Amino acid sequence: MHLSKKVIFNTMIFLVFTATAITCGACLDIKEVARNLSENVKEIKNNELGIPFILKLYNSFMYLPRNVDLQKNIQTMLLKLESKISDVFSGLDVAKSIIQNIVELKNISLSSALTPCFQKDTSQLVVDTSFIDNKTVLHSFGSRYVLDKMKKSMGTTSAALKRQYIISNSEIQHLEYSPFHLCSECDESGLWENFIIRKKYQPKNIVLILDNGGSINHSQLHVLKTLAKKLVSSLTTRDRIALITINSNYTYFKNDCNFSEEPTDTLKLEQINTSYKRALNNYIETLSGDTGATNHLLAITKGLEVVSQNNELIKDETVMILYVSRGLLSSLTEPKSVLEVIAKFTRSSDISLVIYTCAITFDFKPVMYEHQFLQDMAEQNYSKYNIMYKPNPLRKTGVMLTVNSSRNVPFVINQIYDRFSLEMTFVTDKNISLPTWDAATGDLIVSFTSGILLENDVFLLGADIYFASLAEDIMYYSSNQDDAYAFLMDLQGRMLIHPSFIKPSPFSHHILFASVENFEKVTDIHVFQKRLLTDESGIHDTFRYNSTDMVSSIHHCLSNLLYLVKYIWSRVSNYYILCLATNSKYGKPHKSYKPRWYQSSSKSKFLYHNLEDYKLCRHINLPSTIDVASLYLSTSCFQSPFTASQTIQDRLTGQGYLAYLKDDTRLLANPGLKDEVRDEVSALSHVLEFLRKRHLSSALSKYIVRRYASSYTGVLQIFPGSVFRQGLQPTKRPWFLKSLQHKDKVTLIPPYLDKGGAGYIVTLAYATSQLVVAVDVTYGYMLKLLLSHMPACLDDKITCFLIDDQGYIIYHPNLMDVKGVRPVVEQQHIVHKESLVSNDILNHKHFIKKMLCNNYGDNTIQRYYRLNTSFTGVLVNFVPGEHCVTYRITAVPHTNIFIGVVNASCDFPATFCPCSIVNRLCLNCNRMEQKECECPCECPLEDENDICEAISYANMTNNPPCTWFVDDSSLETSFTMDTENRLEPCFPVSCQSQKLYLDCLGLVGCEWCKYDMDGNYLRKPFCATVNTCFNGFFDISTSYTGNISVDSEYSPVGPILGSVIAMCILFILLFICYRSYTSPLAERLYLSSTQDQLRMSDLNINDTYNDLSNHRDKLLQEDSHNVVSPYCMAATYKQSAVAVDSDHGYSTMTPHDESEHLSLAPVEVESIEDDILSDSTSIHTSFSTKDGPRVMSPIYTKISNKNCIIVPVTVHRNMEKT
User: Fold this and answer.
1) Which DSSP helix (H) or strand (E) runs through 785?
2) Contact by Cβ (8 Å): 908, 799
3) What pairs with residue 243 in β-bridges?
4) E strands, 139-226, where?
């Protein structure tokens, strides 16, 4: 009874207070609220983050100046990098001498080889030298013997070896498939590219004809597109190409900015350049399958027309028609018709013509005439079809190649280019490739290669090295300090490593290596760039433009906008340019010297891969301890970060590190850590001991998930103590990078899903000159903080929100879209939720500005907003009398956030802010208006001007590089989870005892349940654990762990409802099966209107054809209303970063729900076409040339057929002859 009276009293007080606040909501002083929030944040900074304690602590340490001797540092790094390069090439030289000895002196041929292969480690392969004279053994195992000797000759650098290989040119000329096609986890693209660039070719003139007719299924189309894109990408500026796609009609790609409704009669062979190559690849990517039968005669006719119309352009040069097709015939007389056209053309032609065909096939597919037809076309086998032809010395016999998978594509391209190669020309110089992605494993590698030119053969020796190992000293030189940094370039001036060069994304098509002028914004950049590329070594002093805020006063003198920067550089073995830089802006650097350990009962104790040494408890879903903090050493803490990343951090290894770190005598040998790490760990132990005691005593700890601190080197300590998996880079996390941008301010990070199971959390961080300290609070605590000053935020007509300095939402009542059908997978922007406010604040140029930066990691230009954190006024409607909607926004002092209030006394019309709901592509990349509302988005970044002069805005390479984007590699790392929930909770909290919404709000591990699993409001909302109720939904099946604590007090309504749903689903499935098996089967045999005979291949029933499948069930799907927790999603889920050239939708992003709960679902058209339009079960209609050709322009958007609805239709026709 006493409890119920207290609850009633608190409820009445709250309702009265809320009603009073709502009544005077219009008179709310938002500046006063901002000051109060600032005081709350200041209390968190002082008490929970312990900033005064940290500053006092570090001031008590002895400091020594950190001498930055650029000359000494660059020599040290130079010697290490040159030593690694020398080791790799020494191995190649040893292998080269062995091959010359075997092939020339012993006259034994060697086969191509690659190790490792078949997922086996061949590093221990030993060949007995007693067999050295046995020709049979040498031919079979000689290549592996050579590779084994190569690796052993590399010394310690062999640990960074990913793979090594030998390619024999004489062998591959007689192979149908790549000699490495059986090797698993092997990306052959880079391997064959290294081989191709060493050959010398004539100018290549290629008429590429792609078959996208009805006989090509989805898998074959993918292989065809891969082949076409790889072919185009490997062409040089000396080459020309024309592209034609063929089905029942033809389409040619025109290098023109305007889409021509009436195409010209001339099909040109266009000279290759970067922009044209890109446009071709974009067009090929959007290519989709057609339903019509392939008209082979039309294909070869149009191909020959291109050759004849470009006669003067390709005079005295060889031209190739490359026909990529499955080769399925519409009639058995079609091959003869095709060859007759070819014979007629070659009879009087003075052009050196060769025809190559490429058969897209799969080994398990039975073929009859297809390959024979393509082979006859390539070889121009006229005698087989009794075709009279006149001998022509310029007529050259071609070859039919076969491609059965995407992995075989690079090898086939080498075979195609071999036709243009000059006899016995092969570059044998040593070479190091640009860093490239290995598509099979996702590793960034560089290839060391060397050629061998012998009398009867040429060989390529190659060794692929992890780029992270080769350049680790340069990558981790700065340790996130701006006073000094390093960068690496090649001799052509392409930037390979730079602090502003974010790690390249494996999802981008290629890595765009920009020049130094895109990264170093100095006053005499062109002079500096010229010296870098011409002088082998040197020193250069210049001034850099200060990165001033957008609202910096224009009255500042020039000296305040510039500061001195000093460069020193040297060449690395004639392959690279290594440069170091120091900034005078940050003064002389210093570091703490031998700080003592904290003297306490927990002296020198850390949780570091030794959970069993401490009393464990469960902190949400993590096995943790509250006795000590945990220590995590990122790879940047080690002298060799690459070696550390390859080393398993187990208990034994951890004991060695801890013994060294806790050694006060400093006599133990360094196990491989950087010199400053021991001092940083010691200093951080004081900070974490303070945070530990504060967490155990603070009243705010029930809203704080964890506390942690990280040094600039990457030493991370965290409480409660938990164990991390390897791979985390704390210095690349958003809270670390953003706090560095806002030093002397408390930085708030927009909500994100906690890896430890606490739901959505907000991070508050503060950066000092020695470390960054942070706390994670629950998302609900941010609302609780707002309500303590603005209870009116609960009113339906009033919307309160918090945003950061880029406009991303810290809090908004509609941020967690509870009615949505998809989880929140990225930060939400104010434009998404308050489009009307966003349109209006763009008029305040002193408050907000739209910015651009280049992200060279994924080749995009990022558009984002920058808000003025120095703004001291209150922002209101720019247009007076904005109907019934008013807003006020002001900055929260000493933070990076803003508070806003929107008061809507009536329903207001939606405003338009173009935002892609498919990806991050901007609506219009050709222009950007400051006052035009749009979501943060991205445009493609190109290294040359586009083929259209009008399209130039997307190619602004003068934009500053993006430095605030997060390294995605650190996002995948999470904690070691406690999936069984057998441990006692570290901080017991009874969610069930919280009877009021405000009491439950923000508590760690608790959620206020308002909806059932169907999205309906509960009659009696209640407080539950986050494992049971996620995002307000009481649904056990969608909780992110799927586990309920054993002390749960809930009724078994969940299992009962689950059983009922399961029975319903079972009955539905039985009904569907009954309907499917009792439906009458329709005859799916059609005859062409132009042929009377039946092809034998038409009776080859496809193995994958299911004659009982019912595609009608695929037409309509109802979107699920259940809010699935992101914790249930696959760990490998990632939003694609590749720009899709499809017709993507755009949303106004108003508060209204953007999704359609009942919609026409996209259908996998290919799966239906493979059944209905399979060549094995139907005969396609013959081609028709009456229709004009289709012309595709590079800026024309082709709507994919996946946006169509496939409706089964039965066509009745008279099958009798008339």
Assistant:
1) helix 779-787
2) no
3) 208
4) 161-168, 199-201, 205-211
Question: Both tokens of residue 1148?
Answer: 């106004």
Of 322, 327, 342, 286, nearest to 415 by C-alpha is: 322
Q: Which residue has the tokens 């809010």?
A: 1123
Is the Cα torsion angle 246, 249, 254, 257 positive or negative in sign? Answer: negative
CA–CA gap between residue 277 and residue 287 (Å, rounded): 16
Provide Rg for the chain, Cα atoms: 34
| Separation of alpha carbons 279 and 290, rounded Å | 21
Q: Can you give the pLDDT at residue 363?
A: 56
Instruction: Give the per-residue SS3 of 579-608.
Output: EEEEEHHHCCCEEECCCCCCCCCCCCCCEC
The rounded distance, in Å, linking the Cα atoms of 474 and 499 is: 9
Cis-peptide into 751, omega within 30 deg: no
pLDDT in tens, 859-908: 888 999 999 999 999 998 876 655 678 899 999 999 999 999 998 877 66
Q: Are β-strands 205-211 and 240-246 bridged in parallel, bridged antiparallel, or unpaired? A: parallel
Q: What is the DSSP track for 704-725?
A: EEEEEEEETT-EEEEESB--BP
3-class state of residue 74 by DSSP: helix
Q: Which pLDDT does position 1175 carry in this prediction?
A: 40
Which of 283, 244, 287 is closest to 267 using CA atoms?
244
User: pLDDT per residue over 301-341, tens digit each?
Assistant: 999 999 988 887 887 889 999 999 999 888 889 999 999 99
* 519 CB-near residues (< 8 Å, 6+ apart): 487, 495, 498, 500, 501, 961
Q: Which residue in 481, 595, 682 sits closest to 61, CA to CA?
A: 595
Residue 518 C-alpha from the chain's centroid: 22
Q: Between 476 and 979, whose confidence is greater?
A: 476
CA–CA gap between residue 855 and residue 965 (Å, rounded) = 8
Tell me phi and psi for residue 990, to 5 degrees: -100, 95
In the chain, DSSP finds a helix count (H) and a strand count (E) of: 26, 47
Cis peptide before 720 (omega within 30 of 0): yes
3-state secondary structure of 224: helix
* Cβ neighbours, 10 Å, residue 61: 17
- Comparing CA positions, the residue from 757, 508, 532, 752 lying closest to residue 623 is 757
User: In this structure, what token pair is assigned to residue 129?
Assistant: 């030298």
DSSP state of 1113: G
365 to 371, 799, 1168: CA distances (angstroms): 12, 62, 19
Q: What is the dihedral of CA 450, 455, 458, 462, to 10 degrees?
A: -30
> Could you give the CA distance from residue 1200 to residue 1192 in angstroms, rounded to a whole number?
14
Q: Is the pTM of this model over 0.85?
A: no
| Token pair listed for 48 | 């929970």
* Per-residue confidence (pLDDT) for residue 129, from 0 to 100: 46
Residue 303, Cβ density class (10 Å: 0-12 exposed, 13-18 middle, ≥19 buried): buried
Residue 1128 to residue 1133: CA distance in whole angstroms: 11
What is the DSSP code string of 497-540?
E-TTSPPPPTTSSS----BGGGT--BTTHHHHHHHHHH-SEEEE
Report DSSP state, residue 1036: G
d(CA 394, CA 388): 17
Which residue's entry shows tokens 């003139």?
A: 205
Q: Between the ranges 115-124, 162-171, 1048-1057, 1151-1160, where is the mean pLDDT highest? A: 162-171
Task: Tell me how far apart the alpha carbons of residues 763 and 751 are, in angstroms, rounded to a whole number.
Answer: 8
Three-class HEC string of 990-1014? CHHHCCCHHHHCCCCCEEEEEECCC
What is the rounded CA–CA span in Å between residue 448 and residue 469?
14
The amino acid at 902? V
Write down the residue that tokens 């603005």 correspond to: 790
DSSP state of 172: H
Give the helix/strand (H/E) hosting 1062: helix 1053-1078
